[in-house]
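Two proteins were folded this term; both appear here.
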Amino acid sequence: MVAPSLIPQRPGDRVKTNRRDALSLAKLHRAGELTPVWVPDVGHEAIRELVRDREGAMEALRRARQQLLSFLLRHGRVYTGRTPWSKSPTRNSKANEINQILCRLKAMIHGAIELQLPGIRQESLARA
């Protein structure tokens, strides 16, 4: 099997017919200028998909960690240790701080939504 993108073509040779293509491919094959490609089987594709999924998960984890650290930094929580993701004895106290911050943030969001809901309800009733 040969990939179409790996078939050498001369500039200006734009006319495409089955007969011309067959002659061109036969000449290139005889000259040994065609590059064979390998089509992966189901097992290889499964492994490739697993590797892609793992890379995606690791990237998502890295992004989530960065977002959490940025969030904590915006709220004045600076970690001074070596790495913030090691299993340290202070993890539980930090988790409690994070939970408190997240609860306050959630309450703020719900409060803001509740303040806007009466206006939204009145606008939707006026439209109906």
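Next, the second protein.
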Amino acid sequence: MDPALPSETVALEYHFMRTELVTTLKRKATEIIAHLEQDHEPVLITQHGRPAAYLIDVDSFEALNQRIAVLEGIARAEQAIDQGRVISHEEAKNRMGRWLN
């Protein structure tokens, strides 16, 4: 084994995204949406040979938005720490106690 490589092997999984022409979407929207609901895999919509939009199912969209909200919260917290906007554990307990009582 190459000593420069980590001792654990990481398997990479490749996903080939389904691609549809915008004209196909117009003709077969119901069928494409049915596939989305079944396999939850996004569809790349192309127009004039170029990527134009992604079509994803509602559950995946909502999960993605929840993940983004969590990551944005973490980023705001990291920025607050970097800027020194922190309080002690005791002060946090006092502030939360006012809300909970």
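Strands lie at 18-21, 43-47, 50-55. The chain has three helices and three strands. These notes refer to the second protein only.
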